[in-house]
Amino acid sequence: MNTRNDKQSIGTGAAILWAxxxxxxxxxxIQAGRLEQRAYADQANSGxxxxxxxxxxxxxxxxxxxxxxxxxxxxxxEVLLVYAIERFQDFKIQLRHSENLGALFTRARGN
Length: 111
What we know:
This protein is an alpha+beta fold. It has helices at 2-33, 41-44, 101-109, and strands at residues 51-61, 66-74, 79-85, 94-100. The chain has 3 helices and 4 strands. It has a 4-stranded antiparallel β-sheet with strand order 1-2-3-4. The chain starts with a helix and ends with a helix.
């Protein structure tokens, strides 16, 4: 008879643990649904004094001398500036494009 009571208490304990796990899972899902779905660029700004800089190859040029692009985000004026470095030997950086970030994101949203 003691063995049967032990099995019942283990079953009850497991049921309580399962119920708690289901309840916690439901609470996590509910809280995740309440999260704000916005992205804030000012939190991702890793630059200095309102500027962020990133460089990448453009896929143009030879493998030995690829054309590099430098992307600068001016968060004060909300402008994206794209510079190209075509030849490192000339030490010349040319402005290829500038774009207002507000207008860029508006177009990207399709508004």
